Amino acid sequence: NSFKLVIGSVFLCLAVSLLAGFSLAKLNPKGSTIIAIYLLVGISIPAQLYILPLFLLWKELSLLNTHLGLIIIYSALNAPFATFLIRSYMIRLPDELFEASKLDGANTFQMFFRIAIPLSWPVILTAGLIIGLAVWNEFLFALTFITDQNFKPIATILFSFQSRFENNYALVSASAIMMVAPIAILFMIFQRRFISGLTSGGLKE
Asked: Fewest C-beta atoms under 10 Å: which of 72, 104, 135, 140?
């Protein structure tokens, strides 16, 4: 269940954030300042403030106890930060490349897929890891929106092994290792890419 949520959220959030980040960085649409302020508000407001109306809305839409419902929530929660991260990277890409592609007859989507995406793999990987880590460790929304044991992610399963009168420390320890191990392995494998995506602002020739 956790892998499904991570994969779905990463793909959906990156698809939206990449398009938004590219637009804000290179296309300069009208109202971009308002959009940036809106994204900042989305980052600054705690998610707990709208969990109740969101729960009622999800109930009306029959999205409770579904992975799709959580994927939409997780994508929306992580999209503002991912958009800013991707925008800050793409804004440093050489404008000459995009101007030259326009002269060659490339449209906006061709510039996005053939120039922006190939040059932005470090930040794409970084954003994907951050989103995946946030979704993997998320507890509040998973506990609130998923009540069926068959659909619960690992973060809530870890909590279910603890009770008021008894704690099964063997199961808690095993679950904790299962929860930490995949993220630790991924971070060790992609550590250099992860750090370069957060810190690099250099241009790729």
From this structure: 104
